[in-house]
Amino acid sequence: MKKNEIFYVIIILSNTLYSQIFIEPVNSVSDGFKKRYYSQKREYNPLHVGNVWQYRNTESGTLLTTRIVQDSVIYGKKYFKKTSYQLNGAKPNFVSWERNDTVSGVSFMLDFEDVNTNGNFIEELPLDSLENPYWSRYITYKYSFPRPNPFTFAPGQKTVLVKDTGWVKIEADTLIKRRFEILELFWQETIIDKIGVQVFMLEGPNTVCTGAIINGKKYGTIVGVKENEQVLPYELKLENNFPNPFNPSTTINYTIPISQKSVNQYSDVKLIVYDTIGREIAVLINEKKSSGTYSVKFDSKNLSSGVYYYSLITDLKRITKSMVLIK
Question: What is the pTM for the complete model shown?
Fold first, then answer.
């Protein structure tokens, strides 16, 4: 094996060792899939309160956590407050207020620190313009340049080169992956639609996203996030019952998502057990539920051994799964 081949193998193994989000390369997709994909909205910078990303440096092991902690309407536009800090750090290393422009697809940062030193504290500066074509360039204020005081840092104007575009699969989703280079910093980063920044490198080892919580869905491994922190669910879920097979009882967990109208909106929820010919055996839930994750116990009582089905039913969707009773 040649020296440069060994180098690339080391990089690949290093990324695999640290990355807990399984990402599978996809060599090609059909023209029909591309047409459907590009007809939908893409979100390279997912901005929702409760989103969390964690990054680990593959050489030092340093862990960086980025969170979206708040949203607010500022100067008539809705921004999201994003904080980034070292694990167990007392204060954030960096704070920004960001928004995604739905028309242009550009992400902006509110310039409340006047990082471009023009005296205007209420303007917004571009962060990402990720729909740009291959080998094009755009201006960003995304990462830090040192100020005259070497102990303080702030964003500064830089030039991004769009390197290439590919496809990857994360769980059941096939998504676009794009790679960029920030010329002044010798900085490279890979960004995946619906996920955000997956890996970045500055003249050295990679820093890889090892875990994330995006729109209530967890990817990979999150370290140091308190268990009692609320993550708002955005998807109706019905979990596999446990134990399965069971006798005489089993537990079913389910999640009710937030309403598009209000976090505190209630939904009509039913959880019903059926036999194999569709007869109703038991109504476990039939009431209004707010957003959250719930658990209910099903007791088989006088039922005989066999396969049964349980359905989670709301106004918008029905999910059905099977379970096996063995006596």
Answer: 0.63
